[in-house]
Amino acid sequence: MEALLEILKELHPEVDFETCDTLIDDKILDSFDIVTIISEINTEYDVAIPAEEIIPENFNSAEALYDLIERLQDED
Amino acid sequence: MLFTSYNFIAFLIVIFLLYYLVPKKFQWVLLLAGSYFFYACAGIHFLAYIFATTVTTWWAAKRMTAIQQEQAAYLKVHKAELDREQKKAYKAGMKKRTRHWMLACLLFNLGILAVIKYTDFMISNINSIFHTGFTFMNFALPMGISFYTFQSMGYLIDVYRAKYPCQDSLPKFALFVSFFPQLVQGPISRYDALSQTLYEEHSLDWNNIRFGLQRILWGFFKKLLVADRLVVAVKALVGSPEEYTGAYVVLAVFFYAIQLYADFTGGIDITIGIAEVFGIRVTENFIRPYFSKNINEYWTRWHITMGTWFKDYIFYPISVCGWMLKLSKWSREKLGKEAGKRVPVYLANIVVWFTTGLWHGASWNFIVWGMLNCVVTLVSYELEPLYARFHEKVPAASGRWYDGFQAIRTFWIMGFIRILDCYRDVPLTFHQVGTVFTTGNWGSMFTGISALGLGAADYGVILFGAVMMFLVSLKGRSGSVRKQLAEKSVPVQVIVWFLLFFSILILGAYGVGYDSNQFIYNQF
């Protein structure tokens, strides 16, 4: 989780990713951010997030995103 | 049948009466019959195209859902016997089978679109590069082909991604593809959103009818008062480029921005209003786009359903696919972290804007239009840290006046890019825009404006219409304008209704020289 928070913080230092759960709903993350995050996650966790998983529920909070990473790692 | 024609209004009244007279379980059947009748009016032979897309997409989706169900059933039964690797291999095999159906259907339907829409463009390029003399095919473009193909392909990809199961009924799916209000210029609806109300049984609801009719009237107001008047001046300005240079190009940019807004949003208002009268909810396609503070925001407010279509089905799949992630990783190692981070964003953005341009039309004007949007988008992306530093240093650069400045800046940037729609070719467009900086004819513009085919009364009506559109947009910031109106007293509501109705009747552009114009987006 620490590494993920670092990735997110680097993009938006002004956001409290530990508590925010409206990253997509409040348009904090845009499509460019999402692609950057996915690319960083791929490097950091060796997990490829497919396009069909790019839905608000998976990207609205750091926690949801971390759950997604764990689920995809599990499926691998 | 144009939305603004008497035939269409008569057709709409008949469908409306029948819709609430037939047993409710046949309402969707009536809409299907009406949609196919509406489509046949554009040319009976075009039905073959829409029917081919409907049947192939419906069948491929059915096959994919069957494979997905087979997979779920098999894994349920054999869960205990299979180890992790075996499960993974089984899933991969099933995914491959669904992918074959998806790709075959995608290729077939995009192939039809490509052949019909782009063959002559290809021939023209080949002829000009290789000095050959291939004759043009002159295929007639079936009405709304770009819209219904993209809508169907969105459904196909969603079923492939198992976002929802397929629609079992072919006639019901045919209605989703051909639903007449949105067939000619969108919005490009998503199946999971539209199907919620499309097949439902609807009782006569005064609120739906009142709100729907208001929306239809508002669409007619924009189209007939503003768009169909301004088109005369825009055509004059871009039709004689030698005569209308410099300041007139700025005028053309300004007029076309208002014309296109009135035309396209007016058409969508009519679409959404008609659907609402039937109790059907169609996705909004515009949210006050000219209030956008930057180009990224603009594209989340203008032609929203097209933007999200390209984002979900082209931008994301390209930017997160296996080879792109590998390329990104490689770039990080070779070029550094910052450059590596940009690789997927840049490449996917280029592909998206190229295809967006091509989707709009088979011409270099649209391709260059797309690429200019791409450049501005990426430049804004790169300038973000600079803007952040600027705002840190100059905190006064904020608030309403700064928002207004940003909105005006975005309006003009988009306006100058958009003028590529109007001029004959790309070099001429660039030449004309260049004259803005070289021709000092600002003084003559104020006298020349009267020679563009519009009189003082026309400009008065346009100004009235534009001010009304602006005020309604302002009001819309605090919620639905129609809901706000519904909360007013009955006399106020009646006065607004009458004013709207009679301004269309009296001030609409009819008669000689004002033949009701095709909506601009019909041609896409």
From TrEMBL, chain A:
<feature type="domain" description="Carrier">
    <location>
        <begin position="1"/>
        <end position="73"/>
    </location>
</feature>
<dbReference type="InterPro" id="IPR036736">
    <property type="entry name" value="ACP-like_sf"/>
</dbReference>
<protein>
    <submittedName>
        <fullName>Acyl carrier protein</fullName>
    </submittedName>
</protein>
<dbReference type="InterPro" id="IPR009081">
    <property type="entry name" value="PP-bd_ACP"/>
</dbReference>
From TrEMBL, chain B:
<keyword id="KW-0472">Membrane</keyword>
<keyword id="KW-0012">Acyltransferase</keyword>
<dbReference type="InterPro" id="IPR028362">
    <property type="entry name" value="AlgI"/>
</dbReference>
<feature type="transmembrane region" description="Helical">
    <location>
        <begin position="101"/>
        <end position="119"/>
    </location>
</feature>
<feature type="transmembrane region" description="Helical">
    <location>
        <begin position="5"/>
        <end position="22"/>
    </location>
</feature>
<keyword id="KW-1003">Cell membrane</keyword>
<dbReference type="GO" id="GO:0005886">
    <property type="term" value="C:plasma membrane"/>
</dbReference>
<comment type="similarity">
    <text>Belongs to the membrane-bound acyltransferase family.</text>
</comment>
<protein>
    <submittedName>
        <fullName>MBOAT family protein</fullName>
    </submittedName>
</protein>
<dbReference type="GO" id="GO:0042121">
    <property type="term" value="P:alginic acid biosynthetic process"/>
</dbReference>
<keyword id="KW-0812">Transmembrane</keyword>
<dbReference type="GO" id="GO:0016746">
    <property type="term" value="F:acyltransferase activity"/>
</dbReference>
<feature type="transmembrane region" description="Helical">
    <location>
        <begin position="139"/>
        <end position="157"/>
    </location>
</feature>
<dbReference type="InterPro" id="IPR051085">
    <property type="entry name" value="MB_O-acyltransferase"/>
</dbReference>
<dbReference type="InterPro" id="IPR004299">
    <property type="entry name" value="MBOAT_fam"/>
</dbReference>
<feature type="transmembrane region" description="Helical">
    <location>
        <begin position="494"/>
        <end position="514"/>
    </location>
</feature>
<keyword id="KW-0808">Transferase</keyword>
<dbReference type="Pfam" id="PF03062">
    <property type="entry name" value="MBOAT"/>
</dbReference>
<keyword id="KW-1133">Transmembrane helix</keyword>
<feature type="transmembrane region" description="Helical">
    <location>
        <begin position="451"/>
        <end position="474"/>
    </location>
</feature>
<feature type="transmembrane region" description="Helical">
    <location>
        <begin position="28"/>
        <end position="61"/>
    </location>
</feature>
<dbReference type="InterPro" id="IPR024194">
    <property type="entry name" value="Ac/AlaTfrase_AlgI/DltB"/>
</dbReference>
